[in-house]
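Per your request, structure below.
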Protein backbone atom coordinates (compact mmCIF):
# COMPACT_ATOMS: atom_id res chain seq x y z
CA UNK A 1 0.00 0.00 0.00
CA UNK A 2 1.41 3.40 -1.00
CA UNK A 3 1.51 5.86 1.88
CA UNK A 4 1.05 9.61 1.65
CA UNK A 5 2.23 11.13 4.93
CA UNK A 6 3.22 14.57 3.71
CA UNK A 7 -0.02 16.09 5.02
CA UNK A 8 -0.24 16.58 8.77
CA UNK A 9 -3.82 17.73 9.20
CA UNK A 10 -7.17 16.00 9.02
CA UNK A 11 -8.96 15.81 5.66
CA UNK A 12 -11.09 18.88 5.05
CA UNK A 13 -14.81 18.61 5.43
CA UNK A 14 -14.63 15.70 7.90
CA UNK A 15 -17.42 16.32 10.41
CA UNK A 16 -17.56 15.00 13.96
CA UNK A 17 -20.82 13.19 14.67
CA UNK A 18 -20.01 11.85 18.10
CA UNK A 19 -22.11 12.15 21.23
CA UNK A 20 -21.03 15.10 23.36
CA UNK A 21 -20.92 13.13 26.61
CA UNK A 22 -17.78 11.31 25.45
CA UNK A 23 -16.14 10.83 28.82
CA UNK A 24 -19.13 10.71 31.14
CA UNK A 25 -21.72 8.05 31.78
CA UNK A 26 -23.73 6.82 28.82
CA UNK A 27 -27.07 8.60 29.08
CA UNK A 28 -30.47 6.95 28.98
CA UNK A 29 -32.92 8.37 26.45
CA UNK A 30 -36.67 8.08 26.18
CA UNK A 31 -38.41 7.04 22.98
CA UNK A 32 -39.37 10.65 22.18
CA UNK A 33 -35.86 11.97 22.82
CA UNK A 34 -33.74 9.60 20.83
CA UNK A 35 -35.60 8.91 17.58
CA UNK A 36 -38.73 9.30 15.59
CA UNK A 37 -40.85 6.19 16.00
CA UNK A 38 -41.65 5.58 12.34
CA UNK A 39 -38.06 6.22 11.32
CA UNK A 40 -36.84 3.64 13.80
CA UNK A 41 -39.43 1.17 12.49
CA UNK A 42 -38.11 1.73 8.98
CA UNK A 43 -34.52 1.21 10.09
CA UNK A 44 -35.35 -1.97 11.98
CA UNK A 45 -37.31 -3.26 8.98
CA UNK A 46 -34.21 -2.75 6.86
CA UNK A 47 -32.07 -4.66 9.35
CA UNK A 48 -34.56 -7.53 9.40
CA UNK A 49 -34.62 -7.61 5.60
CA UNK A 50 -30.83 -8.06 5.56
CA UNK A 51 -30.94 -10.71 8.29
CA UNK A 52 -33.70 -12.63 6.49
CA UNK A 53 -31.68 -12.57 3.29
CA UNK A 54 -28.55 -13.83 5.05
CA UNK A 55 -30.37 -16.53 7.04
CA UNK A 56 -32.10 -17.81 3.90
CA UNK A 57 -28.67 -18.35 2.29
CA UNK A 58 -27.06 -19.86 5.40
CA UNK A 59 -25.88 -23.43 5.88
CA UNK A 60 -28.06 -23.85 8.96
CA UNK A 61 -31.23 -22.93 7.06
CA UNK A 62 -30.29 -25.21 4.19
CA UNK A 63 -29.83 -28.04 6.71
CA UNK A 64 -33.16 -27.32 8.40
CA UNK A 65 -35.15 -27.28 5.17
CA UNK A 66 -33.37 -30.37 3.86
CA UNK A 67 -34.11 -32.18 7.11
CA UNK A 68 -37.80 -31.26 7.06
CA UNK A 69 -38.11 -32.33 3.43
CA UNK A 70 -36.18 -35.61 3.67
CA UNK A 71 -36.31 -37.01 7.22
CA UNK A 72 -39.13 -39.56 7.27
CA UNK A 73 -39.20 -39.61 11.06
CA UNK A 74 -39.90 -35.88 11.24
CA UNK A 75 -42.42 -36.03 8.42
CA UNK A 76 -44.39 -38.88 9.99
CA UNK A 77 -44.49 -37.08 13.34
CA UNK A 78 -45.73 -33.86 11.73
CA UNK A 79 -48.51 -35.80 9.99
CA UNK A 80 -49.43 -37.47 13.29
CA UNK A 81 -49.58 -34.10 15.10
CA UNK A 82 -51.68 -32.60 12.30
CA UNK A 83 -54.21 -35.43 12.41
CA UNK A 84 -57.25 -34.20 10.51
CA UNK A 85 -55.99 -30.60 10.53
CA UNK A 86 -54.12 -28.98 7.65
CA UNK A 87 -52.05 -26.45 9.57
CA UNK A 88 -49.96 -25.97 12.69
CA UNK A 89 -49.95 -22.76 14.72
CA UNK A 90 -46.44 -21.54 15.60
CA UNK A 91 -46.05 -19.80 18.97
CA UNK A 92 -42.71 -18.05 19.58
CA UNK A 93 -41.75 -17.51 23.22
CA UNK A 94 -38.51 -16.22 24.78
CA UNK A 95 -37.38 -14.39 21.65
CA UNK A 96 -35.95 -11.19 23.11
CA UNK A 97 -36.11 -7.71 21.58
CA UNK A 98 -35.40 -7.17 17.88
CA UNK A 99 -34.31 -3.61 18.65
CA UNK A 100 -31.64 -4.84 21.05
CA UNK A 101 -30.53 -8.20 19.68
CA UNK A 102 -29.34 -9.39 16.28
CA UNK A 103 -29.76 -12.93 17.55
CA UNK A 104 -33.45 -12.25 18.18
CA UNK A 105 -33.69 -10.96 14.61
CA UNK A 106 -32.03 -14.13 13.36
CA UNK A 107 -34.37 -16.39 15.33
CA UNK A 108 -37.51 -14.57 14.19
CA UNK A 109 -36.11 -14.66 10.66
CA UNK A 110 -35.89 -18.44 10.93
CA UNK A 111 -39.55 -18.64 12.01
CA UNK A 112 -40.72 -16.35 9.19
CA UNK A 113 -38.75 -18.30 6.58
CA UNK A 114 -40.16 -21.62 7.81
CA UNK A 115 -43.69 -20.23 7.47
CA UNK A 116 -42.85 -19.00 3.97
CA UNK A 117 -41.39 -22.31 2.80
CA UNK A 118 -43.66 -24.85 4.54
CA UNK A 119 -47.38 -24.43 3.98
CA UNK A 120 -48.35 -26.53 7.01
CA UNK A 121 -47.34 -23.58 9.23
CA UNK A 122 -50.39 -21.31 9.10
CA UNK A 123 -49.63 -18.38 11.38
CA UNK A 124 -47.10 -17.14 13.93
CA UNK A 125 -47.86 -15.65 17.34
CA UNK A 126 -45.02 -14.00 19.27
CA UNK A 127 -44.52 -12.91 22.85
CA UNK A 128 -41.64 -11.71 24.97
CA UNK A 129 -41.88 -9.09 27.74
CA UNK A 130 -38.85 -7.42 26.15
CA UNK A 131 -40.69 -6.63 22.91
CA UNK A 132 -40.78 -2.86 22.35
CA UNK A 133 -43.39 -0.78 20.49
CA UNK A 134 -41.00 -0.66 17.51
CA UNK A 135 -40.54 -4.43 17.70
CA UNK A 136 -44.30 -4.95 17.71
CA UNK A 137 -44.78 -2.82 14.60
CA UNK A 138 -42.06 -4.65 12.68
CA UNK A 139 -43.21 -8.11 13.80
CA UNK A 140 -46.72 -7.33 12.59
CA UNK A 141 -45.36 -6.08 9.26
CA UNK A 142 -43.68 -9.49 8.89
CA UNK A 143 -47.13 -11.10 9.01
CA UNK A 144 -46.96 -12.27 12.63
CA UNK A 145 -49.15 -11.27 15.56
CA UNK A 146 -47.89 -10.14 18.97
CA UNK A 147 -49.70 -11.43 22.04
CA UNK A 148 -50.99 -8.71 24.36
CA UNK A 149 -50.92 -10.87 27.50
CA UNK A 150 -47.93 -12.53 29.10
CA UNK A 151 -48.91 -16.20 29.19
CA UNK A 152 -45.68 -17.14 31.00
CA UNK A 153 -45.49 -20.02 28.50
CA UNK A 154 -48.62 -21.61 29.98
CA UNK A 155 -50.56 -21.85 26.71
CA UNK A 156 -52.94 -24.82 26.90
CA UNK A 157 -52.85 -26.68 23.61
CA UNK A 158 -56.21 -27.14 21.87
CA UNK A 159 -54.95 -27.54 18.30
CA UNK A 160 -51.70 -28.62 16.59
CA UNK A 161 -49.12 -26.17 17.92
CA UNK A 162 -45.40 -25.69 17.33
CA UNK A 163 -43.67 -23.91 20.22
CA UNK A 164 -40.45 -22.21 19.12
CA UNK A 165 -38.49 -21.13 22.21
CA UNK A 166 -35.08 -19.69 21.22
CA UNK A 167 -33.71 -18.51 24.59
CA UNK A 168 -35.95 -19.89 27.35
CA UNK A 169 -35.22 -20.14 31.04
CA UNK A 170 -35.85 -23.64 32.36
CA UNK A 171 -38.82 -22.32 34.38
CA UNK A 172 -40.62 -21.31 31.18
CA UNK A 173 -40.33 -24.82 29.80
CA UNK A 174 -41.62 -26.20 33.06
CA UNK A 175 -44.60 -23.86 32.78
CA UNK A 176 -45.32 -25.16 29.29
CA UNK A 177 -45.35 -28.80 30.35
CA UNK A 178 -47.26 -28.13 33.57
CA UNK A 179 -50.01 -26.52 31.47
CA UNK A 180 -50.09 -29.47 29.06
CA UNK A 181 -49.99 -32.73 31.00
CA UNK A 182 -52.87 -34.47 29.23
CA UNK A 183 -51.99 -36.88 26.41
CA UNK A 184 -54.43 -35.04 24.11
CA UNK A 185 -52.39 -31.86 24.68
CA UNK A 186 -48.89 -33.32 24.48
CA UNK A 187 -49.69 -35.28 21.34
CA UNK A 188 -50.63 -32.07 19.50
CA UNK A 189 -47.39 -30.31 20.50
CA UNK A 190 -44.12 -29.81 18.66
CA UNK A 191 -41.24 -28.16 20.51
CA UNK A 192 -38.35 -26.47 18.69
CA UNK A 193 -35.80 -25.48 21.32
CA UNK A 194 -32.69 -26.69 23.09
CA UNK A 195 -33.10 -30.15 24.53
CA UNK A 196 -32.01 -29.57 28.11
CA UNK A 197 -35.40 -30.40 29.61
CA UNK A 198 -34.91 -33.99 28.45
CA UNK A 199 -31.26 -34.18 29.54
CA UNK A 200 -31.37 -34.13 33.36
CA UNK A 201 -27.74 -35.19 33.63
CA UNK A 202 -26.38 -32.46 31.33
CA UNK A 203 -27.10 -29.39 33.46
CA UNK A 204 -26.90 -28.75 37.22
CA UNK A 205 -30.11 -28.65 39.22
CA UNK A 206 -31.22 -26.85 42.31
CA UNK A 207 -33.25 -28.86 44.84
CA UNK A 208 -36.49 -27.57 43.30
CA UNK A 209 -35.42 -28.58 39.80
CA UNK A 210 -34.37 -32.04 40.97
CA UNK A 211 -38.02 -32.68 41.92
CA UNK A 212 -38.79 -32.67 38.19
CA UNK A 213 -36.34 -35.44 37.39
CA UNK A 214 -39.00 -38.17 37.54
CA UNK A 215 -41.31 -36.19 35.27
CA UNK A 216 -38.53 -35.46 32.80
CA UNK A 217 -37.51 -39.09 32.63
CA UNK A 218 -41.12 -40.18 32.09
CA UNK A 219 -41.66 -37.56 29.38
CA UNK A 220 -38.46 -38.55 27.63
CA UNK A 221 -39.84 -42.08 27.23
CA UNK A 222 -42.67 -40.64 25.12
CA UNK A 223 -40.53 -38.21 23.12
CA UNK A 224 -39.03 -38.43 19.65
CA UNK A 225 -36.28 -35.83 19.21
CA UNK A 226 -34.39 -34.90 16.07
CA UNK A 227 -31.31 -32.71 16.31
CA UNK A 228 -31.91 -29.48 14.44
CA UNK A 229 -28.55 -29.41 12.71
CA UNK A 230 -27.15 -32.94 12.52
CA UNK A 231 -23.96 -31.90 10.74
CA UNK A 232 -21.34 -30.98 13.40
CA UNK A 233 -19.03 -29.19 10.96
CA UNK A 234 -21.83 -26.73 10.15
CA UNK A 235 -23.06 -26.17 13.70
CA UNK A 236 -23.84 -22.67 14.97
CA UNK A 237 -23.71 -21.70 18.64
CA UNK A 238 -27.18 -20.12 18.46
CA UNK A 239 -28.61 -23.58 17.80
CA UNK A 240 -26.57 -25.71 20.19
CA UNK A 241 -28.64 -28.69 21.41
CA UNK A 242 -31.67 -27.54 19.39
CA UNK A 243 -34.10 -30.34 18.55
CA UNK A 244 -37.47 -30.95 16.99
CA UNK A 245 -39.34 -32.76 19.79
CA UNK A 246 -42.59 -34.69 19.30
CA UNK A 247 -44.67 -36.41 21.98
CA UNK A 248 -46.74 -39.57 21.67
CA UNK A 249 -48.36 -40.45 24.99
CA UNK A 250 -50.97 -43.20 25.34
CA UNK A 251 -54.45 -41.82 25.89
CA UNK A 252 -54.81 -43.62 29.22
CA UNK A 253 -51.38 -42.69 30.61
CA UNK A 254 -51.37 -40.30 33.59
CA UNK A 255 -48.41 -37.92 33.25
CA UNK A 256 -49.67 -35.83 36.14
CA UNK A 257 -48.61 -38.44 38.69
CA UNK A 258 -44.94 -37.74 37.89
CA UNK A 259 -45.19 -34.04 38.74
CA UNK A 260 -44.26 -32.78 42.23
CA UNK A 261 -47.32 -32.61 44.52
CA UNK A 262 -46.81 -28.87 45.04
CA UNK A 263 -47.13 -28.31 41.29
CA UNK A 264 -50.30 -30.38 40.97
CA UNK A 265 -51.91 -28.40 43.81
CA UNK A 266 -51.39 -25.06 42.10
CA UNK A 267 -52.08 -26.16 38.52
CA UNK A 268 -55.72 -25.08 38.62
CA UNK A 269 -55.02 -21.83 40.45
CA UNK A 270 -54.69 -18.80 38.20
CA UNK A 271 -51.73 -16.68 39.27
CA UNK A 272 -51.45 -13.20 37.81
CA UNK A 273 -48.94 -11.92 40.34
CA UNK A 274 -45.72 -13.42 38.99
CA UNK A 275 -45.07 -10.89 36.23
CA UNK A 276 -41.69 -9.76 37.52
CA UNK A 277 -39.92 -10.21 34.19
CA UNK A 278 -37.79 -7.52 32.58
CA UNK A 279 -39.39 -5.10 30.15
CA UNK A 280 -37.88 -3.26 27.20
CA UNK A 281 -36.84 -0.16 29.15
CA UNK A 282 -35.05 -2.37 31.68
CA UNK A 283 -33.24 -4.06 28.81
CA UNK A 284 -32.13 -0.75 27.31
CA UNK A 285 -30.68 0.36 30.62
CA UNK A 286 -28.92 -2.99 30.89
CA UNK A 287 -27.46 -2.54 27.39
CA UNK A 288 -26.09 0.88 28.30
CA UNK A 289 -24.62 -0.53 31.51
CA UNK A 290 -23.00 -3.27 29.43
CA UNK A 291 -21.35 -0.64 27.22
CA UNK A 292 -19.98 1.07 30.32
CA UNK A 293 -18.67 -2.27 31.56
CA UNK A 294 -16.85 -2.97 28.30
CA UNK A 295 -15.27 0.48 28.26
CA UNK A 296 -14.06 0.08 31.84
CA UNK A 297 -12.97 -3.56 31.63
CA UNK A 298 -9.38 -4.52 30.90
CA UNK A 299 -10.08 -8.08 29.79
CA UNK A 300 -10.46 -9.12 26.16
CA UNK A 301 -13.11 -11.63 27.28
CA UNK A 302 -15.44 -8.69 27.91
CA UNK A 303 -15.95 -8.53 24.12
CA UNK A 304 -18.24 -11.55 24.32
CA UNK A 305 -20.84 -9.87 26.54
CA UNK A 306 -21.90 -7.52 23.72
CA UNK A 307 -21.83 -10.08 20.91
CA UNK A 308 -25.10 -10.12 19.04
CA UNK A 309 -26.27 -6.86 20.63
CA UNK A 310 -27.45 -3.80 18.73
CA UNK A 311 -26.25 -0.35 19.77
CA UNK A 312 -28.95 1.82 21.40
CA UNK A 313 -30.74 4.11 18.90
CA UNK A 314 -29.00 7.31 20.01
CA UNK A 315 -25.58 5.90 19.19
CA UNK A 316 -26.65 4.35 15.91
CA UNK A 317 -27.87 7.78 14.78
CA UNK A 318 -25.30 10.09 16.37
CA UNK A 319 -22.23 7.93 16.87
CA UNK A 320 -20.33 6.85 19.96
CA UNK A 321 -17.13 8.38 21.29
CA UNK A 322 -14.20 6.36 22.62
CA UNK A 323 -13.30 6.53 26.30
CA UNK A 324 -9.89 7.10 27.84
CA UNK A 325 -7.33 4.70 26.41
CA UNK A 326 -9.47 3.77 23.40
CA UNK A 327 -9.08 4.41 19.68
CA UNK A 328 -12.11 4.59 17.40
CA UNK A 329 -12.22 3.45 13.79
CA UNK A 330 -15.12 4.41 11.52
CA UNK A 331 -15.08 2.51 8.22
CA UNK A 332 -17.25 2.44 5.10
CA UNK A 333 -17.36 0.96 1.60
CA UNK A 334 -19.19 1.98 -1.58
CA UNK A 335 -19.90 -0.56 -4.30
CA UNK A 336 -19.29 -0.30 -8.05
CA UNK A 337 -22.17 1.77 -9.46
CA UNK A 338 -21.70 1.09 -13.16
CA UNK A 339 -19.59 4.21 -13.68
CA UNK A 340 -17.32 4.66 -10.69
CA UNK A 341 -15.26 1.86 -9.15
CA UNK A 342 -15.91 0.55 -5.67
CA UNK A 343 -14.29 2.60 -2.93
CA UNK A 344 -13.42 2.23 0.73
CA UNK A 345 -12.30 4.53 3.50
CA UNK A 346 -11.84 4.90 7.20
CA UNK A 347 -10.90 7.43 9.86
CA UNK A 348 -9.39 7.13 13.34
CA UNK A 349 -10.11 9.24 16.43
CA UNK A 350 -8.43 9.13 19.81
CA UNK A 351 -10.00 9.46 23.24
CA UNK A 352 -10.09 13.25 22.83
CA UNK A 353 -12.05 12.99 19.56
CA UNK A 354 -9.01 14.23 17.65
CA UNK A 355 -8.54 12.73 14.20
CA UNK A 356 -5.29 10.74 14.18
CA UNK A 357 -5.43 9.20 10.73
CA UNK A 358 -7.47 8.29 7.68
CA UNK A 359 -7.21 6.21 4.52
CA UNK A 360 -9.11 5.55 1.30
CA UNK A 361 -8.78 3.56 -1.91
CA UNK A 362 -10.52 1.96 -4.91
CA UNK A 363 -11.47 -1.66 -5.64
CA UNK A 364 -12.72 -1.93 -9.22
CA UNK A 365 -16.09 -3.65 -9.63
CA UNK A 366 -16.54 -4.98 -6.08
CA UNK A 367 -19.96 -4.73 -4.41
CA UNK A 368 -20.62 -2.70 -1.27
CA UNK A 369 -20.19 -5.63 1.10
CA UNK A 370 -16.76 -6.56 -0.28
CA UNK A 371 -15.74 -2.89 -0.28
CA UNK A 372 -16.81 -2.57 3.37
CA UNK A 373 -14.87 -5.69 4.34
CA UNK A 374 -11.82 -4.25 2.58
CA UNK A 375 -12.34 -0.94 4.40
CA UNK A 376 -12.19 -2.69 7.76
CA UNK A 377 -9.22 -4.87 6.80
CA UNK A 378 -7.30 -1.81 5.60
CA UNK A 379 -8.12 -0.13 8.90
CA UNK A 380 -6.61 -3.05 10.80
CA UNK A 381 -3.46 -2.80 8.69
CA UNK A 382 -3.22 0.95 9.22
CA UNK A 383 -3.46 0.54 12.98
CA UNK A 384 -0.41 -1.68 12.92
CA UNK A 385 1.50 1.10 11.14
CA UNK A 386 0.57 4.07 13.29
CA UNK A 387 0.36 2.95 16.93
CA UNK A 388 -0.04 -0.11 19.14
CA UNK A 389 -3.73 -0.33 20.03
CA UNK A 390 -5.30 -2.71 22.53
CA UNK A 391 -8.70 -1.05 23.09
CA UNK A 392 -10.59 -0.47 19.87
CA UNK A 393 -14.07 0.89 19.09
CA UNK A 394 -15.15 -0.08 15.56
CA UNK A 395 -18.20 1.49 13.91
CA UNK A 396 -19.46 0.80 10.38
CA UNK A 397 -22.60 1.27 8.28
CA UNK A 398 -22.63 -2.14 6.52
CA UNK A 399 -24.71 -4.39 8.78
CA UNK A 400 -23.48 -7.65 7.29
CA UNK A 401 -19.90 -6.95 8.39
CA UNK A 402 -21.09 -6.32 11.94
CA UNK A 403 -23.16 -9.53 11.97
CA UNK A 404 -20.14 -11.54 10.83
CA UNK A 405 -17.83 -10.01 13.44
CA UNK A 406 -20.44 -10.65 16.14
CA UNK A 407 -20.58 -14.23 14.80
CA UNK A 408 -24.35 -14.04 14.47
CA UNK A 409 -23.97 -15.28 10.88
CA UNK A 410 -21.15 -16.91 8.92
CA UNK A 411 -19.36 -14.82 6.33
CA UNK A 412 -19.45 -15.98 2.67
CA UNK A 413 -16.45 -17.07 0.66
CA UNK A 414 -16.28 -13.77 -1.26
CA UNK A 415 -15.00 -11.97 1.86
CA UNK A 416 -13.20 -14.89 3.50
CA UNK A 417 -9.71 -13.48 2.94
CA UNK A 418 -10.60 -10.12 4.50
CA UNK A 419 -12.58 -11.55 7.42
CA UNK A 420 -9.92 -14.08 8.41
CA UNK A 421 -7.32 -11.31 8.55
CA UNK A 422 -9.70 -9.08 10.55
CA UNK A 423 -10.38 -11.81 13.13
CA UNK A 424 -6.66 -12.49 13.48
CA UNK A 425 -6.01 -8.82 14.20
CA UNK A 426 -8.80 -8.59 16.79
CA UNK A 427 -7.54 -11.56 18.80
CA UNK A 428 -6.58 -10.63 22.37
CA UNK A 429 -7.80 -7.06 21.91
CA UNK A 430 -10.53 -5.36 23.88
CA UNK A 431 -12.97 -4.18 21.26
CA UNK A 432 -16.53 -3.01 20.81
CA UNK A 433 -17.99 -3.39 17.31
CA UNK A 434 -21.26 -1.70 16.40
CA UNK A 435 -23.46 -0.79 13.46
CA UNK A 436 -24.24 2.90 12.89
CA UNK A 437 -26.32 4.69 10.29
CA UNK A 438 -24.64 6.61 7.50
CA UNK A 439 -25.31 9.98 9.12
CA UNK A 440 -23.21 8.85 12.10
CA UNK A 441 -20.51 7.59 9.74
CA UNK A 442 -20.32 10.59 7.41
CA UNK A 443 -16.54 11.04 7.58
CA UNK A 444 -15.85 7.44 6.55
CA UNK A 445 -18.53 7.59 3.84
CA UNK A 446 -16.94 10.76 2.44
CA UNK A 447 -13.57 9.03 2.26
CA UNK A 448 -15.06 5.97 0.54
CA UNK A 449 -16.66 8.29 -2.02
CA UNK A 450 -13.20 9.54 -3.05
CA UNK A 451 -12.98 6.46 -5.29
CA UNK A 452 -11.33 7.08 -8.62
CA UNK A 453 -10.40 5.01 -11.63
CA UNK A 454 -6.89 4.76 -10.19
CA UNK A 455 -6.20 1.69 -8.00
CA UNK A 456 -3.96 3.84 -5.78
CA UNK A 457 -4.49 3.58 -2.04
CA UNK A 458 -3.53 6.48 0.21
CA UNK A 459 -2.89 6.61 3.93
CA UNK A 460 -2.85 9.88 5.83
CA UNK A 461 -1.28 9.90 9.30
CA UNK A 462 -1.34 12.69 11.86
CA UNK A 463 1.02 13.25 14.78
CA UNK A 464 -0.21 10.86 17.43
CA UNK A 465 -0.99 12.03 20.96
CA UNK A 466 0.08 9.89 23.89
CA UNK A 467 -2.43 7.08 24.33
CA UNK A 468 -2.88 5.46 27.71
CA UNK A 469 -2.79 1.69 27.20
Amino acid sequence: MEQNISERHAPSGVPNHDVEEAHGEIKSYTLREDRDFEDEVRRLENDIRIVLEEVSKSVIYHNITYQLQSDRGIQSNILRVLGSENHILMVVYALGSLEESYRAQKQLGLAVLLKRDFNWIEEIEVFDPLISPVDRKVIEKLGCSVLCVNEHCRRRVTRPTLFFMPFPEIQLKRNLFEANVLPSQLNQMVLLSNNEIFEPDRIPFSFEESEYREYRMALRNFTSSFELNPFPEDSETDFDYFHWSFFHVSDDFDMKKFLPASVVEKMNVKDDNDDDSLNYEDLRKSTEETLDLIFSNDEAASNDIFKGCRLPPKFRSAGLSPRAGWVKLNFSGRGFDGHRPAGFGGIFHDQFNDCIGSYHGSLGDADETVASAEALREGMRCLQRITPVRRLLILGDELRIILWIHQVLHFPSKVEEQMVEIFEFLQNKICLVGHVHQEANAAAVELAEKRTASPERKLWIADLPTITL
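Residues 37-56 form the longest helix (20 residues).

Regards,
D.
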